[in-house]
Structures are given as structure tokens and as C-alpha cells.
Amino acid sequence: MKWILIVFLTFCCINYSFTQDNNEAMAAIRDQIEIIDSYMESDVFFLDPEEFLDQIADHGAELNGYYEHERLKKIIRKIGMPNAMVITVFYFWNDQLIHVNYKQRQYMETKNADGLVIMDYSNAFTKYESQHFFDKGKEIYKVVSGNAVKNIKPEETFVSYSLRMKALLDNKFKNRNTYEALQGKWVNVQFPDEHMIFDETIRFNFRDGKFLKRLKVKIKDDVMYCSSPKDQYIYRYEIESLNAVELVVKDLQDASASLVFYKKVE
Fold it and tell me: Could you tell me the mean pLDDT of each successive run of 10 residues in the chain, 266 residues long?
């Protein structure tokens, strides 16, 4: 009997300690969320849909990262599904995911001029919502309300995905001056019939006025990584110099690492 009492008291102590720790963590997370939501002048950086989606959304998609004091604080992702807008908000504190608010907002129905029932994409209501709280990479609390929209399975895992998106946004934030300087049209000095156009993180290659290739661009340690999902090959160019009128890159595909010169064209 004494042994059973000891086990019971030990379990109660452990459970009380665990609950107390969770309550303290939850209180800190809620305070941090309130602080993050109070920011008024964040630096905003976005990802192209193909960077965060496996397939094109039916009714548009966007992902924006919000920075304060040189750190990512929030990601807002919106994906237009056939019958609902899915909105996910990720909160970060000290570079760690602390909270996710996930919503499925079902489109309202209306009638067109012919009297047929159609979706009203400008009006929606929250049919399903889940809130997730994380401490040191582990979910410590979850609240769910409503029922999922038909044919849309609620997301359950967020940590690995959010950190992957954070890495992409951090790269864009860290190299923002380089990305900004690259925007526009650049003509190859040695071969004037070749030019490229940078539009955000996408590079378009042209020759003789004809489109050749569309490449995604990622910059790391002054190296430009250009990739295409069609050929699965990554082209690498080291940025030797870059200013408002001239770009010089070292072609790392070339064994001789030859330099390629470009001039900016308005």
C-alpha cells in the first residue's frame, strides 16, 4: 500500500511540474504573439508561388515574411483552393517557431446573371481553424474549432515546413541589396545578341530576341545558383562585381572560370 502511495504522489508531482511548465511557456508565447502583432513597420519579403507550392493554386497564392530588428517574426501564407482560402500564420521568436494559426475560409455561394449557383470568391467565412503552440520545436498545446472544408485535409505538421520557408526568406533578406541591384535587363558585352532579365528571384535568358530559359535564382556567399526544374541542373556564377551599370560574373561551369561581362539596359 505504501509503495502504491509513493508511486501516486510521484506521478502527481511530475504531472504538476509538467503542467506548470506548459502554463508558463503558454503565457510567454501569448505575450510574444501580442508583441509581434503590434509591429507596425516591418520589412516585408515574399516568395514566388513555385518556391513554396508543389503545384499552382486554383485561385492564387502568396507567402510574405515580416522582419523586425533583422529577424523574421511572422510568415503569412494564403492559398486559394477550389472552394476555400487557406490562411496560415507562422510566428517566430528568437528564430524558433512558437505559434501557428491555420484557417480554412470557405467561399460563399451566390447566383450569376443566369441564376446559376457559383462561388463568390470575394466573400468567405472561417469553417475550420486550428491553433498550435510550440516550445523548443515541440507542440505543447493545440486548439481546434469547426469542421474541415470538403476535400481539404487540415495540416498537422508545421515545424519542418516553416523552417524551410524561413531559410528561403532569410536568404532573400540577407542578400536583399544584391537581389535589388540585379533587377532589370542585362546585355552580354561579349555576345550582344544574348541578354537576361531578372524579375525578383527569377532569371529569364534570351538570345536573338527569343526566350531561351527560365531559372530560379538563389544567392549565397556571392555565388548565384540558377536552377530549372526541367533539367534538374544548377548553374553557378560567382559575382565578381555588381553596380548600377555593370555586372561581372565568373562562370563556374567553365573549367577556366572565365569572366562574363554584362551592362545594364533600361
Answer: 48 48 88 96 92 87 96 98 96 97 96 87 95 95 96 94 96 96 97 96 95 94 90 91 97 88 93
